[in-house]
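To assess whether the prediction recovers the assembly geometry, we first specified each molecular entity separately, as shown.
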Amino acid sequence: MQTETDSLFKELHELGLRLTPQRIAIVRYIFESQDHLTAQQIYEALKPQFPSLSLATVYNTLDLLMKLGKVNVLGHIGDDIVHYDSNTQPHVNLGCVKCKKIEDVPSELAGHMSDEISLASGYTLLGSRILYYGICKSCQLEQELFTQ
Amino acid sequence: MQTETDSLFKELHELGLRLTPQRIAIVRYIFESQDHLTAQQIYEALKPQFPSLSLATVYNTLDLLMKLGKVNVLGHIGDDIVHYDSNTQPHVNLGCVKCKKIEDVPSELAGHMSDEISLASGYTLLGSRILYYGICKSCQLEQELFTQ
DNA sequence: ATTACTGCAAAAGATTTGCACTAGG
DNA sequence: CCTAGTGCAAATCTTTTGCAGTAAT
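The predicted structure of the complete assembly is given in tokenized form:
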């Protein structure tokens, strides 16, 4: 079976880019995790296997993947760190400002919206970043407990 | 006539917050400009009138307005600077990755989406940040000219 | 009078850069 | 081989912080 990462490796290769063990590991890690990772998180996760790995390489690779349209840049929610999203399909990210978690929400409308936008604006769309923020159910509960 | 900024000043006052000339100027500038400003831009724009103004105060005020839900934090597009948006109504921001401009796009769907999200997730929504990025019409044209 | 707010300068923290070295093709 | 990619450390740049002084209420 041809996985998403396999075809990405093929594509990198066809562009004349080198398949270094670091890139392979970083790409694998991003696509296998469904999280909205930061460069730091990726670095720390791979450090045990690649003691020599440098943060700069992680940033380089993320930048490369972004330019190829393989990851989306989510930006910050509350913290000041850029989060990357391996899910490039139009979808909604929902962040809790209290516990800082970010989850994906399936949205029918998100899919339609990009069509609407590109038609109305004449832009060639490269990607999107849809982030709603608020307080998640469990943090709401916690809040209620404290105010009683 | 009661303007948007006037009622905001009233609200600040009622919260026991002080109406300093700096805050008034910053708030005015953000709400009068329809742009997606950065702290630096606000600082530089007001510096001539307030030679003593400090960047820290701009950041403080932006942070305050954000916590009051009066401005949205847009995040970066390509550059690495946080842009703030005085338009807190659900709407779509469209950024050009070449010329870095960000414009607002009216979208019928954007209004419906927050209802869909909050219903599906159980979150108490505080705000949203919808950013599409791509290449604007004039940058597309420029690109075509270069490849001919 | 109080004390919230400001301005300054220093600090913190994320990301980028320059460069010599290494290794993928 | 050749040169793209890596790792390291220093540099850069945005944002935050601590604190003494200032001004809004």
